């Protein structure tokens, strides 16, 4: 895998779980609370992330009281038009208590701690992003909080794509197989129904 670790003992990072989307492919449901087996999608991801940080941030636009027990901090989009995950990342960078922010989607319930730790081990001045083949995975990434002004400028200039915004910062790529099951996004009800749960 590409990229050279900056240190053997990574600096502490805040972790952002993104759960603020419309859930259009989930029939408009709040994706984080769609169940897979005995637990909701957000609970699977939170269970992996929780031991790795004392600053767990959840970005959501619905069901705030339901999410609150899972997080140390909560954020919501500044508007009510679901503008996408980039604004959630910007908001989280503004409140993160550590010099790095690890970004994860709420709909990847097969994530394991080794992937999160791999991202943390490469912490440095540039973002770190997973890549599968030629396809970047910007919602599996680690950002220095110092990237906030640049991303704010991108947003103000009309940028809404997380990938395009982060590529402007020349991220380090961590390459994973295209079929790695740990990175599967369960963003459609049919995928949930077809895949046995691993509680």
UniProtKB/TrEMBL annotation:
Highest rank taxon of the organism: Bacteria
Residues that, per the record, bind GTP: 18-20, 31, 77, 107
Transmembrane segments: none
Residues noted as binding Mg(2+) in the record, renumbered to the chain: 107
Keywords: Cytoplasm, GTP-binding, Magnesium, Metal-binding, Molybdenum cofactor biosynthesis, Nucleotide-binding, Transferase
Catalytic activity, reaction form: Mo-molybdopterin + GTP + H(+) = Mo-molybdopterin guanine dinucleotide + diphosphate
Enzyme class: transferase
InterPro entries, alphabetized: MobA-like_NTP_Trfase (IPR025877), Molybde_CF_guanTrfase (IPR013482), Nucleotide-diphossugar_trans (IPR029044)
Molecular function GO terms recorded: GTP binding; metal ion binding; molybdenum cofactor guanylyltransferase activity
Compartments where found: Cytoplasm
Cofactor(s) required for function per UniProt: Mg(2+)
Domain spans labelled MobA-like NTP transferase: 16-165
Catalytic activity, EC: 2.7.7.77
Cited Pfam families: NTP_transf_3
Gene Ontology biological-process annotations: bis(molybdopterin guanine dinucleotide)molybdenum biosynthetic process
Domain notes: The N-terminal domain determines nucleotide recognition and specific binding, while the C-terminal domain determines the specific binding to the target protein.
Subunit composition and interactions: Monomer.
Function: Transfers a GMP moiety from GTP to Mo-molybdopterin (Mo-MPT) cofactor (Moco or molybdenum cofactor) to form Mo-molybdopterin guanine dinucleotide (Mo-MGD) cofactor.
Name this polypeptide is given: Molybdenum cofactor guanylyltransferase
Organism, scientific name: Pseudomonas saudimassiliensis
Gene name of this polypeptide: mobA
């Amino acid at each position: 895998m590409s990229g050279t670790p900056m240190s053997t003992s990574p600096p502490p990072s805040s972790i952002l779980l993104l759960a603020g989307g419309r859930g259009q492919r989930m029939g408009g449901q709040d994706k984080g609370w769609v169940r897979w087996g005995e637990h909701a999608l957000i609970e699977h991801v939170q269970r992996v992330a929780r031991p790795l940080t004392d600053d767990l941030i959840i970005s959501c636009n619905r069901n705030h009281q339901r999410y609150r027990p899972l997080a140390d901090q909560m954020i919501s989009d500044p508007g009510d038009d679901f503008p996408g995950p980039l604004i959630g990342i910007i908001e989280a960078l503004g409140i993160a208590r550590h010099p790095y922010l690890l970004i994860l989607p709420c709909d990847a319930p097969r994530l394991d701690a080794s992937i999160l730790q791999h991202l943390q081990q490469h912490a440095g001045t540039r973002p770190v992003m997973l890549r599968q083949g030629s396809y970047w995975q910007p919602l599996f990434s680690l950002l220095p909080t110092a990237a906030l002004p640049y991303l704010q400028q991108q947003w103000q200039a009309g940028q809404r794509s997380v990938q395009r915004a982060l590529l402007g910062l020349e991220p380090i790529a961590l390459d994973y197989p295209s079929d790695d099951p740990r990175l599967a996004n369960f963003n459609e009800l049919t995928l949930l129904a077809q895949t046995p749960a691993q509680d």
